[in-house]
Write a structure and sequence with these properties.
The complex is a heterodimer of chains A (about 220) and B (about 280). Chain A is mainly α and about 220 residues long. Helix content of chain A is about 85%, strand content about 0%. With about 280 residues, chain B is of the alpha/beta class. The chains are: A mainly alpha (about 220), B alpha/beta (about 280). The interface between A and B is medium-sized, with 27 and 29 residues.
Chain lengths: ~220, ~280
């Protein structure tokens, strides 16, 4: 399984390098005070959400699946390795986000408080996890080209669900009425985010394994 | 001698094509050449026996066990290189040594040297022939017992092809080893194959020892009137044109004794295929 994980990272090597360069530029801009640090962490999570799609597209390009299934790995572990790649990517992006926030805070270059920044970043991590959990079964079922189009549908559904839930509660006014979260609430967010993200990924994995198990390559 | 491949009643159904039912055995220490026109089902057969494509019916046993259990000892080359263009040649070593327990890095490097492949080269920069060489190196470097090769010599120059065919012959000198190779280059198969299986429109038309096959079939060249007088039981297929009449005949020895004045020439695998596909069925 480590072979497959390594293969994905080697394929993404150039993309990751260019993403890191863009990130460094964005972080420098955030340091200069032009925009908030949380903008950079949001950008990072959007990039992380796109990466698995690239891997599927690259695999399709070289017919990897046919070869991959001839290796002594099996379909379940093949799917599991892809999920681990996603988890590692999200964790790497999360770690970079925290490192950047702490560095900016120590340098006194952060507009928002560190607590607010970490809370926002945790939301972005959950967002990236949710997007990947929804995307991966689609990628296994429909392939990268159709799933890419479906991503926009997935985003639309999420936006719609947010609106549907928010309107009866009073919309943005309701959100503002919640006030600033307490430190205890803020501290609970990462734990809740990690647990709910992992549960969602586990369900997503079962679905992907089902699709890939039935797939004729 | 045990069978390295045993296929029983294997069927794979698609909407517009059905492979099988196929029954096939490849004994250890031998090479079976799989021939057939494009779309005959050669790749589907290889994928189905591996479980890469789920067979509709039937079963395959590889190296005496379930295909999933045998994969550690199988080397595979399909009709194209399946390593991403974004990888370098040496990345294949980094990935596959974590996949195969028996991966031999030294052997892989030896094959790269033999095939003139630089480890630092991007796969994107390799020609089709060089990519096939890389696939072969990857298929051989974990010291498999069974090689499944789909058009593995396509795109290679004659010198390298010769070297690879020698490699195959060396490989099957061990009685535990076997090769199933599909190829359109039938001259390669005539050189190295012990058995020939001929797939036509998803059905196995012929499967026999190569020497017996080439010995028992012959190409009859005669006048149209002479052909009309021949016992139909000997005729497989015929090709008639304005200038010549040719027929593929079976039981060549008996035929020659029965019709000593008719000219019967040896048949090649290419001619055998062309007769079956293009000839009129007798």
């Amino acid at each position: 399984m480590t072979g497959l994980i390594l293969k994905d990272f080697l394929i993404l090597r150039k993309t990751l390098r260019s993403y890191l360069m863009i990130l460094a530029i964005y972080a420098a801009v955030a340091f200069s005070g032009f925009w908030q640090a949380s903008f950079v962490s949001g950008f990072m999570m959007v990039m992380v959400s796109m990466l698995p799609m690239n891997v599927f597209a690259y695999d399709k390009q070289c017919n990897w699946d046919t070869y991959g299934l001839s290796l002594p790995i099996g379909r379940t572990r093949t799917v599991a390795s892809r999920y681990l790649v996603v988890l590692i990517l999200v964790a790497m992006a999360g770690a970079l986000t925290i490192a950047m926030g702490v560095a900016m805070n120590l340098a006194g270059r952060m507009e928002e408080s560190l607590g607010e920044y970490l809370l926002t970043s945790a939301v972005f991590v959950v967002f990236a996890t949710v997007i990947n959990a929804m995307m991966l079964p689609l990628l296994y079922k429909f392939g990268s080209e159709r799933a890419r189009m479906m991503l926009f549908g997935v985003m639309g559904i999420i936006a719609l669900l947010v609106v549907i839930f928010l309107i009866p509660l009073g919309g943005l006014d309701w959100l503002q009425s919640l006030g600033t979260p307490t430190m205890e609430q803020v501290a609970a967010v990462p734990a809740v985010a990690v647990v709910s993200g992992l549960v969602l990924l586990a369900l997503s994995f079962l679905l992907s394994r089902h699709f890939y198990g039935a797939k004729d390559v | 001698m045990t069978n390295c491949i045993e296929i029983k009643g294997l069927v794979k159904e698609y909407k517009t094509f059905t492979l099988g039912p196929i029954d096939l055995k490849v004994p250890g220490g031998s090479i079976m050449g799989l021939i057939g026109e494009n779309g005959a089902g050669k790749t589907t057969l290889i994928k189905s026996m591996l479980g890469v494509t789920r067979p509709t019916a039937g079963e395959a046993s590889l190296l005496g066990t379930d295909p999933d259990r045998a994969k550690e000892d199988i080397g595979i080359v399909l009709d194209d290189c399946f390593f991403s263009e974004y990888l370098r040649v040496k990345d294949v070593d980094s990935v596959l040594r974590r996949v195969f327990k028996g991966w031999d890095r030294g052997l892989f490097r030896d094959y790269l040297d033999k095939f003139g492949l630089a480890g630092s080269k991007n796969i994107k920069e390799l020609s089709r022939g060089m990519r096939m060489k890389l696939s072969l190196a990857a298929a051989l470097a974990h010291r498999p017992k069974l090689l499944l090769l789909d058009e593995a010599t396509a795109g290679l120059d004659p010198v390298v092809r010769e070297e690879i065919l020698d490699e195959f012959l060396n490989f099957v000198s061990d009685d535990d080893h076997a090769i199933l190779i599909s190829s359109h280059i039938t001259s390669d198969l005539e050189k190295v194959a012990d058995y020939i299986a001929y797939l036509h429109q998803g059905k196995l038309l012929l499967c026999d020892e190569k020497d017996r096959l080439l010995e028992s079939y012959g190409r009859l060249v005669c006048a149209r009137e002479e052909l009309d007088q021949v016992d139909r039981g000997y005729l497989v297929a015929a090709r008639k044109s304005q200038y010549s009449t040719e027929a593929l005949i079976r039981r060549k020895g008996d035929f020659k004794r029965l019709y000593p004045r008719l000219a019967v020439e040896p048949v090649t695998l290419d001619e055998l295929m062309v007769f079956v596909v293009k000839g009129e069925q007798a």
